[in-house]
Design goal:
By secondary structure, this protein is an all-alpha fold. About 50% of the residues lie in helices and about 0% in strands. The longest helix is centred in the C-terminal third of the chain and has 11 residues, at about 45-55.
Length: about 70
């Protein structure tokens, strides 16, 4: 389970995994590991993701206590 809501924000932004991957110089497969929680973006990448999605870094985190 991922602690980040990347897929949710990506779909709201009408972007593909490949679109986001290209913005970071990654393969689609590497980016997909972020969405499924096998790997995580670093702080700089997290800030860039928030900028792309028009939200704050905190918005990207799954709030497990509200689940």
């Amino acid at each position: 389970m991922s602690l980040l809501k990347l897929k949710e924000y990506r779909l709201k932004s009408n972007l593909s995994q490949n679109d986001i991957a290209k913005m970071f110089g990654l393969t689609q497969q590497a980016y997909s590991t972020w969405e499924v929680g096998r790997a995580y973006p670093n702080a700089e990448q997290l800030l860039k993701l928030a900028n792309i999605f028009g939200c704050t870094p905190n918005d990207l985190y799954e709030h497990l206590w509200n689940a």
